[in-house]
Write a structure and sequence with these properties.
This protein is an alpha+beta fold. The chain has two domains: 55-268 and 370-374, no CATH class; 270-362, no CATH class. It has helices at 26-39, 64-67, 96-101, 194-203, 272-275, 279-282, 292-303, 309-314, 343-363, and strands at 54-60, 69-74, 77-82, 86-90, 115-118, 124-126, 133-135, 139-140, 148-149, 154-163, 170-182, 188-190, 205-210, 218-221, 223-226, 231-239, 259-266, 366-374. Strands 1, 8, 9, 11, 12, 15, 16 and 18 form an eight-stranded mixed beta sheet that branches. Strands 4, 5, 6, 7, 10, 13, 14 and 17 form an eight-stranded mixed beta sheet that branches. Strands 2-3 form a two-stranded antiparallel ribbon.
C-alpha cells in the first residue's frame, strides 16, 4: 500500500474535503493538484484503514433440496422420494470459524470417485486419491487452506458438482455473501444492514478465470445487476453442450462423474484496480482495456457514482460510502470514470472507496459465502 510522505496514520479517517479546488484557496488547490498528479498511478490512500479482518465462513447449499423432494404413496405408508439431480462436493480444509459454529454438514466421504472432468475443457483427470466430501444440503465448503477477506486479498473457490440422474443438461450456481458479527459467547448474529450488503457486493468480485501466469488478469466476472432491485447477482450457468469435447447441443452431463469448477475471488486493494491496467506493478484487475470483461466492470463502476446528494444520503452505492451526503465535488463523475479520468474524479472515487472499505470492516467480522445450485 503506497502512502504519502510524512503522512500521520489516522485511526478514524475524516470525510474527504472535495472543496479543496476552490478559488478561495489557490495555494491549497495547487498543492492538491500536484499531489494527485504525483500519486495518481500509485493510488495513495488518504488514511490507514482501521477495519477488522474479515474471516470467511464458507458453506455450500443446494436450493433444490427442498423444492424437489416429492412425497409418494407406497401401499399404506408415505415416504419421501429423493429426486436431487446433483450433489455438490469439495476437498481440503473446513474453515475454522465455520467449524466452530457447528451448523453445517461434514458431508459424506464414502465414495469411490477416481476421476473428474474439468468443466471448461471437458478433459478427464485422475483425483489421485483426493477425498471428496459430498452432500445435498447445508454442506460445509472445504478449501485449500484457511481463507480471509480483506482489501487486496484474493483466493480460489473450488468445488465439484456430481450429476445423479441421466440426461441432465444444465446447472446454475449463485453465490451469495452475507455478513455476521460476534455476539454473546460463541454465537454470531446476522448483519442486517443494507448499506453493508450493498458495499460487499461491489468490493468482493468473483470471476471464472485468471490466467495461468497471473499477468493478464481476471476474466468472466459473474456480477449481473438486477435493474428492478439494484441487486448484484453472482451467477454461473454451465451447459453440458458448452463443455469442450461435447458432441452436440444434445450433450448431457455424465452421471456420477464429478465436474470440477474453480472460481476466483478478489477484493481490490485500491479503487484504481477496477480502472487501470498495470497488473504487474499495481495489481490492477485487467491488462487489456479493450476486452469485454473490462468494459462490463467499468460500466458497473460508473453506475455506482451518486448522481446527487439525495442518492448519497441513501448510500445505495456498491462501491462508495459517505457518512454524510456526498460532496458536490463528486457530481459530474457519472459516466466519466475510465483510464483517462480527471484527477479530481480519481481522488474523489479513491476517498469514497476507502471509506467503504472501512465501513465494511467496522460492521462485520465474518463473511458467509453460500453457493446455491439449481437445475
Amino acid at each position: 500500500m503506497a502512502e504519502e510522505k510524512n503522512q500521520k496514520p489516522a485511526s478514524t479517517p475524516e470525510q474527504p474535503d472535495l472543496e479543496a479546488h476552490s478559488d478561495d484557496n489557490k495555494t491549497e488547490n495547487n498543492e492538491t493538484t500536484e499531489k494527485i498528479t504525483r500519486y495518481k498511478k500509485q493510488a495513495a490512500r488518504s488514511f490507514v484503514l482501521a477495519f477488522t479482518t474479515l474471516i470467511a465462513i464458507i458453506a455450500v447449499c443446494i436450493a433444490w433440496f427442498v423444492s424437489n423432494t416429492k412425497v409418494t404413496m407406497t401401499g399404506t405408508s408415505i415416504s419421501a422420494e429423493n429426486t436431487v439431480p446433483f450433489e455438490l462436493a469439495s476437498a481440503g480444509e473446513r474453515q475454522k470459524p465455520e467449524l466452530s459454529q457447528g451448523k453445517l454438514s461434514e458431508g459424506s466421504n464414502e465414495n469411490n470417485y477416481s476421476n473428474y472432468i474439468d468443466y471448461k475443457t471437458g478433459t478427464t483427470y485422475p483425483l489421485n486419491g483426493k477425498t471428496l466430501y459430498t452432500g445435498s444440503s447445508s454442506l460445509a465448503w472445504r478449501l485449500n487452506g484457511q481463507q480471509k477477506f480483506y482489501p487486496g486479498a484474493s483466493g480460489e473457490l473450488e468445488f465439484y458438482f456430481i450429476p445423479k440422474q441421466d440426461g441432465l443438461k444444465k446447472i446454475t450456481f449463485q453465490i451469495n455473501l452475507t455478513g455476521y458479527k460476534e455476539g454473546n459467547g460463541n454465537n454470531l448474529s446476522l448483519v442486517e444492514n443494507h448499506v453493508w450488503e450493498n458495499l460487499i457486493q461491489g468490493h468482493i468480485l468473483i470471476f471464472t478465470g485468471l490466467d495461468a501466469n497471473n499477468t493478464k488478469g481476471y476474466s468472466g466476472w459473474l456480477g449481473e445487476i438486477n435493474e428492478s432491485s439494484n441487486e448484484l447477482i453472482n451467477e454461473l450457468t454451465i451447459n453440458a453442450s458448452d463443455i469442450k469435447n461435447s458432441a452436440s447441443d444434445t450433450a448431457v452431463f455424465e452421471k456420477n462423474m464429478p465436474y470440477k469448477v474453480i472460481l476466483y475471488w478478489k477484493w481490490p486493494k485500491e479503487f484504481r484496480n477496477y480502472v487501470y491496467n498495470d497488473r504487474t506493478g499495481k495489481g490492477d484487475l485487467f491488462t487489456d482495456t479493450s476486452e469485454a470483461d473490462y468494459k462490463k466492470l467499468l460500466k458497473f463502476v460508473n453506475a455506482q457514482v451518486p448522481a446527487n446528494e439525495a442518492y448519497g444520503a441513501k448510500n445505495t452505492s456498491k462501491l462508495f460510502y459517505s457518512a454524510k451526503t456526498y460532496s458536490s465535488g463528486f457530481s459530474g463523475a457519472e459516466n466519466s470514470i475510465d483510464i483517462n479520468m480527471s484527477d479530481e474524479i480519481f481522488e474523489s472515487c479513491t476517498n469514497y472507496y476507502n471509506l467503504a472499505d472501512e465501513y465494511i470492516g467496522k460492521n462485520a467480522q465474518y463473511i458467509y459465502v453460500e453457493l446455491n445450485a439449481e437445475q
